[in-house]
Amino acid sequence: MSKKTKIRRPKARLAKGFRDIEAGELRGMKRMLATIEHVYESYGFEPIETPAIEYTEALGKFLPDQDRPNEGVFSFQDEDEQWLSLRYDLTAPLARYVAENYDALPKPYRSYRAGWVFRNEKPGPGRFRQFMQFDADTVGTASPAADAEVCMMAADTLEALGIPRGAYVIRVNNRKVLDGVLETIGLDPADPTFEMQRLTILRAIDKLDRLGTEGVRLLLGAGRKDDSGDFTKGAGLGAAQIDTVMAFVEAGGANRTDVLKALEPLVAGSAQGVEGLAELAEMDTLFSAAGYDPDRICLDPSVVRGLGYYTGPVFEAELTFEAETEEGEIARFGSVGGGGRYDDLVARFRGQDVPATGFSVGVSRLYSALVALGKIEGEGAMAPVVVLVMDRERLADYQRMVIALREAGIRAEMYLGTSGLKAQMKYADRRGAPCVIIQGDDELANGEVQIKDLIEGAKLSETIEEREEWRAARPAQFSVKTDELVSAVRDVLARHGAQ
User: Fold this and answer.
1) Which residues are annotated as a binding site?
2) Which of 1, 183, 316, 495 is the S-S candidate for 270 at Cβ 3.0 to 4.6 Å?
3) Helix or strand run (H / E) with residue 170
4) Domain carrying residue 208
């Protein structure tokens, strides 16, 4: 007798670092994205969509990890052995698009786009390998007015979503000022190790909120060992150099003019640093003229952004209210978006200067913040009314009922399974249906339909203890003439607050 071959079945499991998103959140995010889009459109930005896959060479140079094509990004080779990667962000693909279509585009070119991005990095709590961003960018002008406008648009976006003033702040800095500080402490851009040392300094400063002043000092110096014992090599700065960098980082304040004054001596003697400071001063003038006070947009030298491609002003949108974390602790919600000037990104393709600036919203994180604030409500649409199938020979009759409901603007479906009444009712309960429509032989003979209000029935069942009383009362179930079906269902939905 032959041995029975065991069928090997794939295991149903979610890939590490990814998540499924269900109906309620999808609907809420859709409405949130529509609000963001409305603000971006009001500023004159145009939509554009780029592919999720780009040639790796168009992305990799500016990623935090550059040693091999698959570091930091998900990559593969096509039939021509060309490396392709899932996009890491939406900015590098935009730079490729602008470079490829440069002559046909108006300059400045103002666009927005939403899409999924992918990071081949270690996942963690709230840190996924696929997430959505919503970007807006201005390409083709070096004016600080473009940077200022993006910051103001970010503030307007948060307020349009219902986040009140005082619950957020747009924090602004300039990479040129930091580079000026590095110049004054003796770091030489011509040194082969400069770029890596500069990136290490950027990442150290970027961890200020999480590690505090002492943790950043360690990362600016020899390095830091975390609680698990892992050691992170530092930037190798001396004590005096660290003091100067920390004076820069801690120069922020409630008054933008005071911050500018505090930064002046730190960049004295550096042409680049002075230029960056002048750009911040111009942005400050525009903020003040437009009525964006420091409680909405502030200057904060601790904002540096982690990516290496920023060349000038950088900014972050931070929520300042507190919320409960996944671990049950109360903490400030933090950053929900950021961006900055990236004048070299398009130039990589064209060999000529093409200045650009932009802002990116972290959609999932912002959505979570809106939920925590109670600004996303009613994201679950009323489930469909379910027409039960009492006689399979009468499917056409039941389908006509469904069509009548849909034509009246009511979500409705006919039960498409093959089970009996009990299973159909269970299905409607699991769907969250507000009511079901029943027409058996008796109802048909009387020209009627039965409507069972499942929401009201669930409420009444809490007050009825005896099975016999329940069957006799048949709570929330009533009959109407067939031609009154639509109006009767409307009444049921209106009773439960559905539109």
Assistant:
1) 89-91, 119, 133, 137, 305, 309-310
2) 183
3) strand 168-174
4) 23-373
- For every residue of 460-499, DSSP letters joined together read HHTT---HHHHHHH-TTEEEEEGGGHHHHHHHHHHHTT--
Closest of 72, 157, 64 to residue 359, by C-alpha: 157
Residue 232 in 3-state DSSP?
A: strand
pLDDT tens for 216-264 read 999 999 999 888 888 889 999 999 999 999 998 888 877 999 999 999 9
CA angle 350, 187, 269 (to 5 degrees): 90
In 3-state terms, what secondary structure has residue 318?
Answer: strand
Q: Are residues 72 and 172 in the same domain?
A: yes
- Residue ranges of alpha helices (H) inside 75-171 are 91-100, 144-160
Task: State how far the Cα of 342 lies from the Cα of 357, in Å rounded to an integer.
Answer: 6
C-alpha 317/C-alpha 322 separation (Å) is 15
Residue 414 domain-assigned (yes or no) = yes
pLDDT band at 8 (very low <50, low <70, confident <90, very high): confident
CATH of the domain at 93: 3.30.930.10
Residue 416 and residue 357 in one domain: no
Domain boundary among 341, 373, 405: 373
Query: Is residue 10 a part of any domain in this protein?
Result: no
Task: State the first-to-last Cα distance of the chain, in angstroms, to the nearest integer.
Answer: 66
pLDDT higher at 330 or 154: 154
Lowest mean pLDDT among 83-87, 207-211, 307-311, 323-327: 323-327
Taking the alpha carbons of 32, 35, 37, 43 in that order, is the dihedral positive or negative? Answer: negative
Numbered residues of the known binding site for L-histidine: 89-91, 119, 133, 137, 305, 309-310
Same domain, 326 and 416: no
Residues 93, 88: Cα–Cα separation, whole Å:
9
Q: Count Cβ atoms within 10 A of the Cβ of residue 124 and give its class: 0-12 exposed, 13-18 middle, 19 or more buried.
A: exposed
pLDDT at 66 (0 to 100) = 42
pLDDT in tens, 166-218: 999 999 999 999 999 999 999 988 888 888 888 888 888 888 888 889 999 99
Instruction: Summarize the chain as % helix, strand, coil (round to 5).
Output: 40, 20, 35
Q: pTM for this one?
A: 0.83
